[in-house]
Amino acid sequence: MKKSHKIIIVCLCLLALVGIVGAYAYKMYNDVVDTSSAVYKKIDKKKVRKQELDMSIAEPFSILLLGVDTEALGRTDKGFTDTMMLLTVSPQQKKTTIVSIPKDSYVKIAGHEVEGRLNTAYSIGNIGTSVDTIQNFLTVPIDYYVKVNMGGIQDLIDAIDGIQIENGSEIEQDGIRFGKGLVHLNGEKALAYARAGYNRANIGSDYTRQQHQRQIVSAIAKKMMNVSTLTKYKELLRVLQENTETNFKFDDFYSVQKNYKQAFTKIDQLQLQGTLTDINAETYQIIDPTELSRVSAILSKQLESVKKAPSSKTK
Q: What Pfam families does UniProt report for this protein, alphabetically (predicted)?
C-alpha cells in the first residue's frame, strides 16, 4: 500500500473517531440538559442576599442538602428532613465547608406561629419553609437546595462504584462491621454507616451519625468531580432524576463544573452543637446563641466574595 493511501486511511479513521466522540458528547449533553430540567423545581424563599449571585465569576455560594425519609419523592406523605447540611462553596478560599444541623434543633418555623423541631419545617410547610427557617436560624443566605430521597443515596453511590471514607473506630450496624481506617463502601454499606451508633437519648451518638453523613457527602462530592465518573453518566442521571429535586438550573451545574473545581480540593466539616432539653414532654436540642454565632461567622466568612456583595436572586 502506498504511503499516501495509508495517510488517507489514518485521516479517515481519525475523522470517524472524532465523529463518534462528538456524537457521544452531544448525546451526553442532551441527556444532562433533560435531567436537569426534570429535577428542577423553583421555590419561594426569603431574599437575604443584597445583590445577584454571579457564578460566571466563581462567587461563593451555599447549598442546603435535605435528606427526606421517604422511599420515593412521589409518595403522598412528605416525611421529615432527618438529614440537614449546609454547604458553603468558596473557590477563593479553595475549600467547601459542610455544617451538620441537628434535626431536633428547637427553632421558630418560618411563616408559621409555632416552635418545634427543625426537621418538621418541611412537613408543616414545604421546602421553602425549611430554607427560610434555616436562613433565619443561622443568619446566612441559602442560594440553592437539593432534596434527596435517602433511599436513593444507595443507588447513587452504587452508580459511581462506591466511595472511600476514613473510619475512626471499629463499629457495627445492621449486621455490617466497619473496620478502623480506610473503608470502601457500596450503597448498602454507606446507608448502614450513616446510621451507625445512633441513639436518640444520647446527643453524642447523634453527632457521630451526622459526622458519618458528612463523610459520605464529602466522598460523593469528590468522586463526582472525577472525570472517570463520566463513563457512568447514564446510570448516574437516572438515579438523580428518580431521587432528587433542586433549584439548580443547567447553567448553574455547568458553572460549578467549570469554575468551582478548586473549591472541592479541601472539605472542612463542622457540627452545630446543642444540649438536650425536655419541653412539654418532648426532647429537643437547644442551640446556645454563642454556638450559633460561632457557626454563622464561619459560614459568612466562607461566603465573602471578591466583590463582597451578596445577591437577591430567588431561585
A: LytR_cpsA_psr
Which pTM was predicted? 0.81
Classify 163 as helix, strand or coil.
strand
Counting every residue written for the chain, the total comes to 315
Provide the 8-state DSSP code for 281.
Answer: T
Helix (H, G, I), strand (E, B) or coil at 130: helix
Question: Alpha-carbon distance 104 to 136, whole Å?
Answer: 16
In this prediction, residues 104-118 reach a mean pLDDT of 94
Largest Cα span, the chain: 91
Q: pLDDT of 167-182, one tens digit each?
A: 988 888 889 999 999 9
Set of cell numbers at residue 249: 438550573
Which grid coordinates belong to 74? Answer: 412521589
Do the beta carbons of residue 208 and residue 269 sit within 8 Å?
Answer: no
Secondary structure letter of residue 103 according to DSSP: T
3-state secondary structure of 280: coil
